Automatic annotation (TrEMBL):
Molecular function terms, GO-annotated: ligase activity
Domain Thil AANH residue range list: 2-141
Name this protein carries in UniProt: 7-cyano-7-deazaguanine synthase
E.C. numbers: 6.3.4.20
Source species taxonomy: Bacteria, Fusobacteriati, Fusobacteriota, Fusobacteriia, Fusobacteriales
Length: 330
């Protein structure tokens, strides 16, 4: 008997796998990859190794973006379409059952842990959005509080060995993991950027500008980095705050219409997107000077799209007014 598991690498999904695996069922862990969560990572791989399960990365970025654009059950507090997202994971896992020879699907969802997306009605909605799989979904951590699934009815899995956890506290899960000798797991918490207010605010701007499309996924990733400036519809500037930001921005230096970095004086790396006007380019150059070691107080030579560009000292008062006008902050 085999089961596929929705697997983030975190506490709940790991415990769900452990409980099912201990019944002699082979579990294959599916880590779903979108533009906003998941992907090859040490956390998931370490946990899969501790659990002794096969880990598979499942990239569903494109179809997930389509769900994000118009989720049937709407979004949460931010840009997160949790109910539709979970249903998409189950559907995608269902499409992989034959490939892996699996008979049912498990997840680490806990009844009442997230008031909006993991209440009883929400869990039932997820099942309804997963036609053909409704009775093949097992939620081991709260199974005793939920209707009996087909794998339980058929004896594929022993319901008496499943759990009845509910609520937001993870104390029970932590105690069980300690009991099982699994101590190296990440601090419980969300891993989806769509639940983050600051990131969601940036992404909403792309949506308002008509750019919430998979073909613009590079922008989705750029929005995760540093400072964000919007000049007007479809015209943006992303500015590194620190060295890690600069390295990430370098990966997109050929994507935008503008790439700025220091030459002799260190400063932020910057990517501009869209057909920027001369005034907007000048603002970007002055901004580099302002955030560089010269603080805008003297002439500086930098690299603009790979070419030397020397700019004079900056009118900081005028620049600060423009920063207030363009920068997107919380």
């Amino acid at each position: 008997m085999k089961a596929l598991a929705l697997f983030s690498g975190g506490l709940d999904s790991a415990l769900a796998i452990k409980i099912v695996k201990d019944q002699g069922i082979e579990v294959i862990a599916l880590n779903f990859v979108s533009h906003f969560f998941g992907g090859k990572n040490e956390k998931a791989e370490n946990m899969a190794k501790q659990l002794g399960v096969q880990l598979e990365y499942v990239n569903f970025s494109s179809v997930h973006t389509e769900i994000l654009k118009s989720p049937v059950h709407g979004r949460g507090k931010n840009m997160n379409p949790c109910i539709d997202c979970h249903a998409l994971m189950f559907k995608t896992a269902g499409d992989l059952m034959e490939k892996f020879g699996a008979s049912f699907i498990i997840s680490g969802e806990v009844l009442g842990q997230r008031p909006m997306s993991q209440n009883y009605q929400a869990l039932e909605k997820v099942k309804a959005l997963s036609p053909g799989l409704e009775n093949l979904i097992v939620r081991p951590l709260s199974a005793k509080l939920l209707p009996e699934s087909e794998p339980e009815k058929l004896g594929w899995i022993d319901r008496s060995k499943l759990l009845d956890i509910q609520g937001r506290s993870r104390k029970t899960q932590m105690e069980l993991m300690e009991k099982f000798g699994i101590v190296d797991y990440p601090t419980p918490g969300g891993g989806c950027l769509l639940t983050d207010p600051a990131y969601s605010k940036r992404l909403r701007i792309l949506e308002e500008d008509g750019l919430l499309e998979d073909e613009n996924s590079n922008l989705f990733h750029l929005l995760k980095i540093g400072r964000f400036f919007r000049f007007e519809k479809g015209k943006y500037l992303i500015v590194g705050r620190e060295q890690d930001d600069n390295l990430k921005i370098d990966e997109f230096k050929t994507y935008g219409s503008l790439f700025i970095r220091g030459k002799e004086v260190p400063g932020p790396h910057m990517v501009g997107f869209g057909d920027l006007s001369q005034d907007e380019i000048e603002f970007s150059l002055n901004l580099f000077s302002r955030y560089s070691k010269v603080k805008g107080n003297s002439e500086i030579t930098l690299l603009l799209n790979g070419n030397d560009k020397t700019i004079p000292a900056v009118d900081l008062e005028k620049l600060n007014e423009k920063i207030k006008q363009y920068q997107i902050t919380m």
